[in-house]
Amino acid sequence: MKAVILYDSRTTNGSTEAIIDAIGLKLAENDVYVEKAKCKALADYGFIRDFDLVILGAPVYYFLVSSQLLGALIQGNLKQNLKRKKIAMFLTCGTPDYMAAVLYLPQLKIHLVRNKILVEQIFPSSVLTESDIIDSFVLDVLSEYHKTMKSRVVSARWTDEAQDWLESVPSFLQSKIKSAAEEYAEEMGYNEITCDVLDAAKDKFGG
Ligand SMILES: Cc1cc2nc3c(=O)[nH]c(=O)nc-3n(C[C@H](O)[C@H](O)[C@H](O)COP(=O)(O)O)c2cc1C
Fold first, then answer.
1. Which of 16, 60, 107, 130 to mutate to test the pocket of ligand 1 (most atoms within 8 A of CB)?
2. Which class is domain 157-203?
3. In the structure, which protein residues have their CB atom closer than 6 angstroms to any atom of ligand 1?
């Protein structure tokens, strides 16, 4: 398995980079090939296709997630290249986690509504003195990743509503839509195809 940590920070050798190094070490201990890459808003993120797992991480400055990571999602081609990727994310900040989860994580998640987010975490700046928190983040990410991969072998079940919708489309389109939806559910690790899953998968079958 190959993972890339895409991060941003204004501080060279600051807390975000130190956390990333600790995450990288723990991933490597668990036999994951890992690389890190610092975000630039307008960089080309095509290289992400070579990785199975993408971990996004950044600090918060003045109530906003660090600008190059946000910029890469908003102005750059990161979002397109993250399509159908398994993602974990973390933020470092000085705000208590329950508030940061409401104030800051949505700044990233709003751009990733079609992605499977395995784990999301707020790290306080002091986390480096508590390496257990970083280790357990990595172990949670790996466990969620493996769960997703295992559920791929089980075919997704169609809910009655989703099945009714499928039957309502012209019959010559049904088998194409059915396979595309099942392929999407498999990629995302869903074991149930609901109307919401069909809605999210509609890019796959052309709207
Ligand atoms: C200039 C500056 C602004 C900050 N603004 C916020 C903020 O608005 N909310 C917050 O929770 N933490 C804020 N912090 C705390 C940082 O998010 C936190 O210290 C983070 O770990 C810094 O990461 P770095 O060492 O990679 O720069 C700020 C820190 C700095 C230096």
1. 60
2. mainly alpha
3. 9-11, 14-16, 59-63, 92-95, 125
How many A from CA of 94 to the centre of ligand 1?
6
CATH architecture of 2-151: 3-Layer(aba) Sandwich (3.40)
Round to whole Å and give the CA distance between 33 and 12. 24
Average pLDDT of the chain? Answer: 91
How far, in Å, CA of 101 to CA of 8, rounded? 18
Q: How far apart are CA 169 and CA 28, in angstroms?
A: 48
Q: What is the pLDDT of residue 148?
A: 83
- What is the CB-side half-sphere exposure of residue 204 using CA atoms within 13 A? 21
Q: What confidence tens digit (pLDDT) does each residue in 113-158 have?
A: 888 899 999 999 787 777 799 999 999 999 999 988 766 656 789 9
Tell me the pTM: 0.80
